[in-house]
Fold these 3 entries.
Entry 1:
Amino acid sequence: MKQCVMHLDRAKFKRNSCKVVAIICLAIEDSQILLVRLASKARDAGSRLEGHFGKKSLAFKLFLCRSFLMAKMEEGNDILEHFKKIKTLVEQLDTVGDPVSENDLAVTLLVSISESNGFFITELNSRAYSLSWELITSRLLHEDLKRKE
């Protein structure tokens, strides 16, 4: 009886693994299908994708750090898109083993906003805020909405 249950568990696990591979194949672009085409297990598909996209070299870390530190919002660009760009870079840095502190994230965001938002930094200086991503993004969104009205 116990052996029968174990066999059913393995069959269920294998079926679920095949479903995950199918979901991965549906989620990636056609040009990337070649990377997971021969994968029979979800773990294998994930490993192949990580091997291709999960570059952890020093050069890639430096590229991400430079992109993060040099990020600049152009005049007239959407502030939400800029937030997404910064957050994506932070997540990529975390993935390659170089996490960004909350303070560094807040400071980089402030430095990267467009010149037309310079008044915002002055406003922050006049108050005794501790800098955080949530505070800065919410205040910038609020100011952006006010300006658009």
Note: Residues 58-148 form one domain.
Entry 2:
Amino acid sequence: MKGINMKKVKKLKEGDTVTIVSLSSGLLGEKYCRHSLEIGLKRLNDMGLRTKFSPNALKGIEFIKNNPQERANDLIWAFKDEDTSMILSAIGGFDTYKTIPYILENKEYLSIIKNTNKIFLGYSDSTINHLMFNMLGISSFYGQSFLPDIAELDSSMLEYSKKAFLSLFKEGKIVYKPSKFWYEERNSFGADQINIPRLAHKEKYGYLSIQGKNKFSGILIGGCLESISELFINEDEIKINQKYNLFTEKTDFKNKILLLETSELKSYAKEIKEMLQKISETGCFNQLTGVIIGKPQNETFFFEYKNLFTKFFSQFPNLSVVYNINIGHAYPKMILQLLSKIEIDIENQTITNFKNQFN
């Protein structure tokens, strides 16, 4: 990322087109998701946005699973499309890493990405797409995707999540405080759940300091912990990571803040520890300014994780670590711009994202 002249990402405006892509799972193309798709499209239209789909986005689970090259082509198609201002991930999954070689080995594709200024928003498995963009010096946005967030089955988006999405229409900084409520994941996503609210709980803890300074800042990188750790565990992903340096010992971690949020898998604390140990082999925790960690979905293993993080990060006394951030797989969700400046203030319970401020 050093020496790259980064482009400022333009804000959304009324009349802009959002293109939805399926880079991981093809769930959005299944008939049983039709009701969710229609809800999500109406929400985007109600915000004054036009919508379209990349050519293969709605071809279903099996096609998307078996055709990673077409997924890669879809991403580039969205970058090339003159109408598209924002590229929105449909949902996460497990194997978007398979798209990486088709993009990074193609000089034309690289040129298109580097010379096109568009918003990319996704989370979960989209972490791998973010790492690719960020390695290329392209800023992207982490925190939400189409099906889980825009297409929320209740009568409206979760208010905190909606405000975060609407921040994409604004320039300058955005300040997040902890959500007053958190929400459980649904057990069912059928049409019978339309207009049914999620189970809500009052937030008890806010942003929790695990160690280090109560106020610190840096440039944000990272994403889903499980997705990053697979780059060190899955044999195929290890090869791709080492070849393309998505997250390795060659990554520039200086003055960075690493976002780590845990997935819907609700991994045991022992497994989380193993993931952190794998990631630490890059030397990142000796170089980073700080780590911010998402609230676990449904607050599952909340204190087990807290105890683990307290013990694990004590090995790195110069690192500032904060836990229980509203982002990723827990509901509701903020949106943060990767490769831009972020400031965490525990005393005032704020996270400030300075959009398009790259140093």
Note: The radius of gyration is 19 Å.
Entry 3:
Amino acid sequence: MKNILFMVVAFAMMTLVGCNEVVNEETSENTSSDSLLAMPYNKIIHRFVLRKQDKSNSMNTYSGIRWFEENNKQYLLWGTRNNVLQASWDGKTASVEKVYNFQAKKGVRASIPNEMVVRKEMRKRVVYVVLNDNDEVVKFEIGSGKILWKKPSGLAPYGVVMANGKLYVSNWSGMVPQKTTTSTAGIPWENATVDRFGTVASGTVSVMNPETGNIIKEIKTGLHPNDIITNPRQSYVFVTNGNDDNISVIDTKTDQITETLSVR
């Protein structure tokens, strides 16, 4: 898991500096790090050790890697246990400039920021970030860290994408069970709908209003919906359903599934 984290962070940084190869190493401190190589010179240009930047078990998560440019400076964002870290890249080194903290809600060990959307709104850079264990989506401002809204999504949200003026959030464990739901089990902090074998039996995509965070619609997908993307025209959203080996195709005009693509 830690190797995946470092490789993804390094890959995101390579898009900033024009590198095209990564070497994963073990340092004398027994701390994994990644080296960025400038090709074709095969030269290490920077080594960035995440554990030195964030003491909160940053190597437990690997999603939420995003980068953006602001005022002719390049920045990298990624999620750790309870934080979103913001680092700047000057062409030679990367350094953490800001840490945005998202406390775990009561009864939960960690908020676990996962995927993010970074965009410019009203001349301000904002981030929409999914908090997996908090079952929430948060919208906050870059720089000030001001939280514009924090709203519940479905259970165990993972991916998020903006399309056709709406947010689409994949929920690993689907909708919150109703009072009449009899078969539930912990996932681990909340109860989810399960089948007779105790396996999670629900997967959804929450369609949310980016201005308010309110849920517009819940779309039932396959089981364990994971990564979610949109096409360039934002007319469709594609979500991978890990436990069903298929992809749900969502029409962003109707917010209905128009096709299910098998990947078996």
Note: The two ends are 25 Å apart (CA to CA).
